[in-house]
Amino acid sequence: MDRITVDVEIDGTTHQFTLLLTELNKRTESYGALLGGDRTGLEAQVTVLEPGQDEGNTFFLSRLVGEGDWVIDAKFGPNSFPHWSHGFGARYTKLRGLLPEFGDVLDDAARERKLAAAIGRDVPLELVS
Fold this sequence. Notes:
This protein is mainly beta. It is 10% helix and 50% strand.
C-alpha cells in the first residue's frame, strides 16, 4: 500500500489529504453491446483521509482507454457503508469524478508502474502493451 500526501487548494485554503493507494492494475471486462461492450483500462482502489482522520472513504475508480479523467465506480464509507456501487468502467450511470490533484497521484503511480504509455490531465489513456 502506498501512502501519499496531497495538498489541495479549495477556496483559497490549502487542505492536506492522505491517499492510501491499495490497488492499481490493468483490467478488461467483457459486456454485451447493451452495456457498452468490452471495457479495457486501469482500476484503482484509494482511501482518502482528511486531516486528523484514521479512517476515510474508499473509492473504486476506473479510467478506460481513450479517457482523459478518472471516474468513481464505487464509494464506501469508513464503516464500509456503500454510498453507491457500479461495475468496473460503468459509463451508463451518472459519472462522478475526483479532485484533479488526486487524479495526478493516480497518473503518476500508473507511469511509475509502467502501466500507461500516455496518461495525464485531459490526456487520453493509452496502455503499455
